[in-house]
Amino acid sequence: MIPAVMAALESGDLTQAMALLETLPPDQPQVMLGWAWLEEKKQNLEAAETRYRDILRQDCGPKIILRARQGLERIATTRKQQQMDALATVAQAPGGDQRAILVLEAVPNPEVKTKLAQQLTRIMDIEPYAARLLLPSRGWRLLRNGTMAELAVYGSQLRAAGIPAFWLPLDPLQELTVIEVRFLQSLSPQVQAGWGGHGSEPPQHIFTFNWEEVTQRVEGQLPIFETVVDRDSRGTATYKSQVQDHAQCCDLHLPSRQTILRFYRGHYQFNRGIDLTPVQGSEVAADQETSWANWRQLLAVFNHCRPGIPIWSDFTSFAETVLEHTDLLEKINPHLDLFRREDCYWDHAFQLYSGLIMALSGSEHRPLT
After folding, report:
1. What's the CATH number of domain 2-90, 1.25.40, 1.10.3210, 1.10.3470, 2.60.120?
2. What is the full per-residue pLDDT of the chain (369 aa) written as tens digits?
3. Separation between Cα atoms, residue 354 and residue 334, nearest integer Å
């Protein structure tokens, strides 16, 4: 009976092969191999792979084991060819050559992560251990940057395998309007925000909007680095870069205008516009503690005037996955003029993070709470 099954499979008579297999004990090694080959012939690659791997986990004899391994190799070759064909097809589509990024979303459940890591290993052709590390438990991880055509293929395969991911072109993110607000002149009936000017220059423009236009908030702390001298026990000096402070930033998103209102604690003029402190006329307005208190009060104003909107604050974990992609970040305008003694890409990463969130406005994406 087994030779008849194999002959039917070799000739492509899948109906006859299935009819014969259904009459045989399913736990026999040759029958298991027959079912695996049948699934492969039907292009049910997931089911075929599962059956071949079940054979490898059992003592089925060297010949059956060899056939199972050969089956897995054929499946890998088929998938690779399918991927290449898909890439060739989408490469011809309009906009396929646009620069884009592919981002993995959080997989909080450890058991689910272990299963999805196997799929990530297969799709991206990476080591299983590396795949598990790449799947974030919280927030986002930049997986790859490349052309829109390429990443659309990978992204579609990831989603089909149950891995949460999204891919977006970069050009629309670059077209967003970003306004750095220096002070809030009024909060109602409309909000008036002063902007423009550099450094200590007074703002030159007023931007007017309604609170209802603000749909979400993005917060981030950008590290400020300084070069410090470290001496060993012999007094030998070495110079290294350390984080000395953080720049607090908060973006308000107005997607209907494709506009981001950016608030940076170091540039916001707390002594102008609406009163943010319970003590008026303070003579220590420039004091660090007062600046922090004012900043917290400004965030409290946002909470009061626009309660219940999503607040995204996983910037740091995302940035740590992006910073090595300097070829990507150097093309992004950070829209933030921080005084830095050394160049770094944290500012660019924050603009990318906020821009991605803006691009996803109205979708099912929500920050983790």
Report:
1. 1.25.40
2. 677 777 877 777 788 778 777 778 878 888 788 778 778 788 888 888 888 888 888 877 888 888 888 888 887 888 777 777 776 676 666 667 889 999 999 999 999 999 999 999 989 988 888 999 999 999 999 999 999 988 998 999 999 999 999 999 999 999 999 999 999 999 989 999 999 866 556 667 999 999 999 999 999 999 887 766 676 666 666 766 666 778 899 999 999 999 999 999 989 998 888 887 554 444 444 455 578 888 999 999 999 999 999 999 999 999 999 999 999 999 999 998 877 766 789 999 999 999 999 999 866 666 654
3. 10
Burial of 80 (0-12, 13-18, 19+ CB in 10 A): exposed
**CATH number of the 99-169 domain:** 3.30.1390.10
In total, the chain counts a number of residues equal to 369
Q: Which two tokens stand for residue 203?
A: 């703002």
For the chain, how big is the Rg over CA atoms in Å?
28
Count Cβ atoms within 10 A of the Cβ of residue 362 and give its class: 0-12 exposed, 13-18 middle, 19 or more buried: exposed
* The dihedral sign for the CA sequence 367, 95, 84, 40: positive
First-to-final CA distance of the chain: 59
Residue 123, helix vs strand vs coil:
helix
CA 295 from centroid of its chain's CA atoms: 28
355-358 contact pairs (CB < 8 A, 24+):
355/173, 355/176, 355/260, 356/101, 356/103, 356/140, 356/168, 356/173, 357/216, 357/218, 357/253, 357/312, 358/173, 358/176, 358/253, 358/255, 358/258, 358/260
Q: Residue 147 pairs with which residues in a beta bridge? A: 99
Q: What are phi and psi of 81, to 5 degrees?
A: -65, -40
User: Where along the chain do the CATH 1.25.40 domains lie?
Assistant: 2-90
Report d(CA 249, CA 298) in Å as an integer. 12
Residue ranges matching CATH 3.30.1390.10 in the chain: 99-169
